[in-house]
Design a protein that fits this description.
It is a single chain. The chain has 2 domains: about 80 residues, no CATH class; about 120 residues, L,D-transpeptidase catalytic domain-like. Helices cover about 35% and strands about 25% of the residues. It has 8 helices and 11 strands. Helix 3 packs across helix 4 and helix 3 packs across helix 5. The longest helix has 23 residues. The protein is elongated, with a radius of gyration of 20 Å. The termini are far apart.
């Protein structure tokens, strides 16, 4: 019985250690000044539903917490001023066919793009998402396509931002007649720059 208690205490300590490590490892450049440790402790209801995964906690803040006027860090609570805007995020503007990456409210990268072709279920989904996967090279495979991309940044389902070296032009009205299958196509050099700048968890706003 004594040995069992000792092992249980050891396992509990390990779980606490890794939970803390996971929370504190969330890169600040992915979320500006969002503090996942503070958020989980301040809002136990969120932690109970989403666990300690920093990306999941930030996802809650983006989709619910901000609208519910929850504080994203201790400083906001001390100032009693909950933020209602994003400072660090990727903006995908479908109407203007541009992708802009903002850091602390400043545009640090802007490029024309090609989004999903309207109709037939190929439009790029709109909403607030997060970079969920970063892969430096993979095949994108579908019913009638099998293409290699050098930089893949998935943000929802099978939809992501990536280079499209098969295109010679981006922007304008290309997407209306020769758009993607839903992804956000970027020039190769831009995709590489963006890939190096963002982190897993970075907000992606598509509108």
């Amino acid at each position: 019985m004594k040995n069992t208690r000792i092992w249980l205490n050891v396992l509990l300590a390990i779980c606490v250690f890794f939970s803390t490590a996971l929370l504190t490892s969330f890169p600040s450049r992915a979320s500006g000044d969002f503090d996942p440790v503070y958020y989980a402790q301040r809002y136990p209801d969120v932690a109970a539903a989403y666990g300690n995964d920093p990306v999941a906690l930030y996802g809650h803040y983006l989709n619910f917490g901000m609208n519910e006027h929850r504080f994203k860090n201790a400083q906001e609570e001390a100032d009693n001023q909950a933020s209602d805007t994003l400072d660090t995020y990727i903006d995908v503007d479908i109407a203007n066919q541009t992708v802009t990456y903002y850091v602390d409210g400043v545009a640090v990268l802007t490029s024309p793009c090609v989004t999903g072709q309207p109709g037939n279920g190929r439009s790029t989904p709109t909403g607030v998402f997060q970079v969920l996967t970063k892969i430096p090279g993979k095949y994108l495979v579908g019913p009638d396509w099998n293409v290699w991309v050098d930089r893949w940044m998935r943000f929802t389902g099978a939809v992501g931002l990536h280079d499209a070296n098969w295109r010679s032009k981006f922007g304008g009205s290309i997407y209306k007649s020769n758009g993607s299958h839903g992804c956000v196509n970027l020039p190769s050099d831009v995709a590489k720059q963006l890939y190096d700048m963002v982190e897993i968890g970075t907000a992606v706003v598509v509108h």
